Amino acid sequence: MSYHIELIKNLLNYIDLYEEHAANANIEEFSLFLKDRVFGSKKYRNTTSIEKGDQPNYRNYAEVEFSIGLTTLFRYAKIYIKKAFTGSSIKTLDEFGFLSTLFREGNLLKSELIQKHLLEISSGSEILKRLIKQGLIDEFDDKQDHRAKRVLLTEQGRKEVLVAFEQMHKVSEIIIGTLTEQELKDTLAVFQKLTNFHRHIHENDKNTELDALHTKYIETEMS
Q1: Which string of DSSP letters, residue by residue, matches 132-174?
Q2: How far is it, in rounded angstroms, from Cα 167 to Cα 186?
Q3: What is the CA radius of gyration of the chain?
Q4: Fewer Cβ neighbours under 10 Å: the N or C end of the chain?
């Protein structure tokens, strides 16, 4: 029983420490915090401003390292993705994303499809034009609003995306590399948390300036 009491005391200490850094009672976030504290020595969150004199050592900040690492991984992924589309009518990740979404959902308004992929209307419209020209999707009038257009896969588009799925699965396995099953689950949990965080910003503060976003979502939340 004494072991249980000691364990509870240690856990309470971590809970007190967690309350100093987070203004919520999210069990998933606490579990990540606990994991970092038990198995790592880095601070939970470094919110110290970077002074001018620190700029040459900016890579020492975990937040900056994370952003650089994520960008680097994406660049590696783009190399593999380019190989996956060799010989295909699909040339870009955005094109594949549009086709795979239509494969899952049947047909969508053009604007719906573009918004799902977080693209500007002008950029998304250019992608749709290319896919229509290549014969991979068709467009038709929306029954409720004849000014609006819907899109769906053609038979050729369905064939192309099924082949692409097989190639992209290989890409995914290469990107995951040698992560263990548990490491993959932990990574997915972190990605999901970040996705929820950024989705909230996108839905509520899409046009807010950077400094205001930082004040609202970082400085205020961590104070």
Answers
A1: HHTTSEEEEE-SS-TTSEEEEE-HHHHHHHHHHHHHHHHHHHH
A2: 25
A3: 23
A4: N
> Residue 168 and residue 185: Cα distance in Å, rounded?
20
29 located within any domain: yes
- The answer to whether 137 touches 153, Cβ cutoff 8 Å, is yes
pLDDT (tens digit, 9 = 90+) per residue, 169-207?
Answer: 999 999 999 999 999 999 999 998 898 889 889 988 989
Let me know whether 168 and 205 are in one domain.
Answer: no
- For residue 213, give the amino acid letter: L
CB-CB contact of 89 with 137 (8 Å): no
Its domain, for residue 14, covers 1-42
| pLDDT at res. 132 | 97
